[in-house]
Amino acid sequence: MENKITAALLGNPNSGKTTLFNSLTGLTAHVGNWPGVTVDKKEGVYKKLDTPIHLIDLPGIYSLSPYTPEEIVSRNYILDEKPDVVINVIDATNLERNLYLTTQLLEINVPVVLALNMTDLIIKNGDKLDAKTLSKRLGVPVVEISALKSTGLDELMEAALKASKQTRQGYTVIEESDILHLIHDVQIAFKGKGVDNPLFHAIKLVELDKIEVEMHPDLVNMVEEFKKTFKDDTFQDDFEAIVADKRYSYISKNYSNVLIKEEKTNKVLSKSDKIDRVMTHKIWAIPLFIVIMFFVFHLTFAEDLFFLNRLFHVEFTNEVFINICTGMGYDGEPLAGLPSPGIFLQNWMGFLTGSVIDGFRSFMPEGTWYTSLVCDGLLTGLDAVLSFVPQVMILFFFIAVLEDSGYMSRVAFILDRVFRKLGLSGKAFIPMLTGFGCSVPAIMASRTIEDRKERNKIIRLMTCFSCGAKAPIWALIAGVGALAGFAGDTFVFTIYLGGILAAILYALLMRVISKDDYVSPFIMELPLYHRPQMKNVGAYVWEKFKHYLTKAATIIAASTIVIWFLSNFNWNLSLGLVDIEDSILASLGKGLAYLYYPLGWAQGDDGWKYSVAVITGLIAKEQVVDSMAVLGLNEETIMFTASQAYAFAFYNLFTIPCFAAVGAAFGEQNRKEFWITLLWWFLMSYAASGIIFGVGRLFEIALWAGIVLMAVVLALIVAATIYVIRRHKKYVLENE
Ligand code: GDP
Ligand code: MG
Fold it and tell me: For residues 295 and 275, what is the distance between their CA atoms, to the nearest angstrom?
């Protein structure tokens, strides 16, 4: 008999839901998205009881009033999907704040079990918790657990199973008052309309919650009428605040003595506090963070680990050793320093995929279209995706460790003040920093930002941060002979700096244009430090891995086939072209050259080649240099003037990133947001490139043009920034 039950885990962020979920479900977890929104949906099964319990890890929320996508998802799930039981996970060390959500949950007609989590900390602190009283007063079973130490989990599931077999009538903790009378009247009206959960909906309508007002405009009048006659001393007619206040006062009246804290002398700081004294130090916090992040990036991306070569001129000549370090890459040259773990694994991944491709090539008949499709198309595309995997995984591993240890919450906290000035919150930092390595994990990391607008902003300005794959483009242009005398490293430096300045400018502009001063609030309590759990870290990395492969691989595979097709066929659809000049791609490139003409670099006989190169950059940014090489453009043959060089570089910096990154953005945004993002990337790069070329051409004096141009652009950006900040300050002052 199919008698499986469904239990939903509901609770505040950081209450330990995911930890509990992982402990209960082991490896059965399945991660997907809630339909329509990019909020993780995790499902799994608990199998230790006779009845399998299907578990859903709902997004962490503080309230059932829908403001964020997370709140809407969690609320709708409980109201519409009607789980058999809701397990309300509560951080027992923050009991009163956590119970706020509980008071709302109790209003819904659904069986509830309270999982009083983090009891290991309660015991460790020497505090005392009276779960029996809690259970008696709330009228629902309460089970003490520790998700981290896996204690009490079986009792919890037994209680959940038992509760799921009964029904529970919702009730409210709001005490006898005028508001309660209004709630009862509205509730009767809802009952008349045959609405499920009339009590819950009535209270939300009285709070004038947006969704409720839209759904039942006919009942809003009742509330508005009442408002005219009613005013609270403190909250006037803000019913939402009145109701919230009633909940809190109920909680503090009844539960402040459920948790008895051990008296602590001020002298004894907990270990966590001691660590925080250093980690969140006023002056040292940010430098410390930069050092930590530097090491993370260094271990992931460095070719010369710990600068052994640069500082101490360490070289290795042993052939076997070099082969081990470089994935069989010995080419007769000594090895300059040691590769970082990221590079090391990337080398071996390259060896692996290279061998597979070679293997296929040796098996398959030469010169046929299907050999070309499989080897030059599909496998090469797969290689491009896989080559990122080691670094992406290592980066996520470090991020997961820092996050699970509790450090990341502090970072967001430290940076919040700086970022707030840009209309961003501290959480934006990780995706941005990651963006210098690769936009794919960076865009995926934006998922941690709950506010949609902010998340979209981050995704859109991601291209400002020069990703690793774009570096070869800068290197090529920096070495162009026609720009002789122009310092290559200055060129590259201005590209990176220009990108960062553009990002700042963009963030400030968006803030002023939208007059939107809302920055996602920083209600985040700092969890205690603890040793990272490999189970959590592993689950996190594995989730990202699956996400990366499925999202990026499908898109890359498809696009590779398209590009392969276009560069190997002519319009008569006859294959076997040696000359790419006659391919469909070439004729498209010639068309594109018209589009890019105003940007300068697509002018002249070679214009179409740059256009094609830029377009193939959609597959992977390394492809730009590759395509240019195939089309005969190298340091000697590129005839760029300084302004063309800058225009070309900035176009490549700002424009639509590779398909893998586009795929990642597609995964994080809804359809409309995604199209705006694509359009934004294109327009921004087009405009920037056009302006740089246009201005540069006005005073094109080979060597000096670039320097003067950059000086002017920088001055303009600085001036605009100062102007915007001033105006913004004025705006804030006027509105205070
Ligand atoms: P979620 O946001 O509700 O999914 O919370 P998480 O499962 O991500 O947990 C937040 C933090 O609390 C993590 O650092 C966990 O390791 C930690 N944590 C979770 N459960 C417990 C517990 O029972 N005891 C202790 N000491 N820490 C816990
Ligand atoms: Mg979670």
Answer: 19
Cross-strand bridge partners of residue 115: 89, 143
> Residue range 440-447: average pLDDT?
81
Residues 654-688 as b/e (b if ≥16 CB within 10 A, e otherwise) read: bbbbbbbbbbbbbbbbeeebbeebeebbeebbbeb
CA 107 to chain centre: 34
Lowest mean pLDDT segment, chosen from 323-327, 391-395, 586-590: 391-395
pTM of the model as a whole: 0.55
Q: Whose CA is nearest to atom 13 of ligand 1?
A: 404
Beta-ladder partners of 494: none
Q: How far apart are CA 410 and CA 277, in angstroms?
A: 11
**CA 416/CA 402 separation, integer angstroms:** 17
- SS3 state of residue 520: coil
Closest atom of ligand 1 to 146 CA is: 23
Counting Cα atoms < 13 Å in the Cβ hemisphere of 513 gives 6
Strand partners, 45: 54
How far out from the chain centre does Cα 285 lie? 23
Residue 45 in contact with residue 55, Cβ under 8 Å?
yes
- Minimal-distance CA residue to ligand 1 atom 12: 16
Mode of pairing for the β-strands spanning 112-117 and 53-57: unpaired
Pocket residues: Cβ below 6 A from ligand 1: 11, 13-19, 60, 117-118, 120-121, 146-148, 404, 406, 527, 533
Mean pLDDT of 670-694: 91
Query: For the sheet containing 112-117, what is the strand order?
Result: 30-33, 40-46, 53-57, 5-11, 85-91, 112-117, 142-144
**pLDDT (tens digit per residue) in 260-312:** 766 554 445 677 777 877 887 777 887 888 788 778 767 876 777 888 887 88
Distance (Å) from CA 57 to ligand 1 centroid: 13
Tell how many helices (H) and how many strands (E) occur in the chain. Answer: 32, 11
Compute the distance between CA of residue 533 and CA of residue 510 in angstroms, rounded to an integer: 40
Give CA–CA dist 480/496, Å, rounded: 18
Non-local CB neighbours of 61 within 8 Å, separated by 6+ positions: 10, 12, 13, 68, 70, 71, 74, 75, 101
Phi–psi pair at 144, nearest 5 degrees: -85, 125
Cα 27 versus chain centre, distance:
24
DSSP 208: T
Own/partner pairs for 280-285, CB < 8 Å, 24+ apart?
A: 280/410, 280/413, 280/414, 285/410, 285/414
Tokens for 264, please give them: 């602590």
Closest CA to 78 of 97, 96, 101: 101
Query: Closest ligand 1 atom to the C-alpha of 11?
Result: 3
Look-up of token digits 């790419």: 580
